[in-house]
Amino acid sequence: MPSSQARSPPSITNLPSEIILQIFESAPDFSVVNALARTARPLNSTYVAGSPAIFHAVASRILPEFPFAEQLVDAQEAAYDASPSLSEDPQNTPSRNERLLSNARCAAVASTKFAAECKIHLFTRARGEENPAFRPSERARFKKSFYQLWTLCTIANTPSLRPSAPGYLDMRNPIELAGLDEVTTWARGYNQNKFVDFDFSDSTWDAGFDMVKEYCSWERKEKSGHKRIHIYSDEAPFGFWVFFDHTQKYLQQIEAHW
Predict the structure, then answer these.
(1) Are 75 and 104 part of one and the same domain?
(2) Which segment of 93-102, 120-129, 219-228 scores lowest on mean pLDDT?
(3) Can you give the residue range of the structural domain that contains 29?
(4) Are 55 and 77 found together in one domain?
(5) Which end of the chain is more exposed for a tag (fewer CB within 10 A), N or C?
(6) According to the model, what pLDDT value does residue 55 have?
């Protein structure tokens, strides 16, 4: 006999938390993740509890820089294991997904600060009026180089890993080296300007900065036949060109090896 009481309509909030987590992890992008998290309290609770796993699942599908984010975590975990004072406290050891999420937040802050300082949106003559802002493709290039620089700095700052740092640079192709060089130049200037929200004065960065500048010195480049790439002042800010869409044409001028 059918019940006289009206049944409540099906709702995502009535699903088990494991299913809700799978829905989050299957989201096509982070805008959908954020929208779901704001929908109802049960969804937000699942999001808060599972945010590292959600980030890993979504980012690994949609972010081109994600492989380099994982390489950074590999280096961080190796550095952590090499430090007796840290590795002896497993309860306070962040998980891999927690590291990925934390690092991604730093990379996002850095890319936003880079875009703000460069004021690339003002270069409409070179970039066009339609979309002069810092674009997703450009952010991805910057974040890739940022992750690579952070990886190098982590390796160079860990005594047991430091001997492998030159080999890490040797394995980078010329475009990657150009990106490392530009991020290092920006980061050092950023630190001197004392911007808030990000600090490159930590000793973790110094050894890597020095290695990049020595490896990418013009004396070294010119000995291998590398030629200077001249960027007009109305084309890109501060001579930076590696990350912007409209200056990708200069990549073909980079020699096969430095």
Answers:
(1) yes
(2) 219-228
(3) 13-62
(4) no
(5) N
(6) 87
- Give the Cα separation of 156 and 150 in Å (integer): 10
130 and 86 both lie in a single domain: yes
Residues 147 and 100 sit within 8 Å (Cβ to Cβ): no
Global confidence as pTM: 0.81
How far, in whole angstroms, is CA 150 from its chain's centroid? 9
Reported as type and span, the H/E element at residue 91 is: none
Task: Tell me, yes or no, whether 126 lies in a domain.
Answer: yes
- A 10 A CB-CB count for 132 gives 17
* pLDDT, position 257: 42
| Nearest residue to 254 (alpha-carbon basis) of 239, 242, 238, 236 | 242
- CA distances, 135 to each of 34, 130, 138 (Å): 21, 12, 5
* Average of per-residue pLDDT values in the chain: 84
pLDDT tens-digit readout, 45-81 = 999 999 888 988 988 888 889 999 999 999 999 998 8
| Pairwise CA distance, residues 113 & 108, whole Å | 9
Dist. CA 239–CA 46, nearest whole Å: 46
Is residue 104 located within the same domain as residue 213? yes
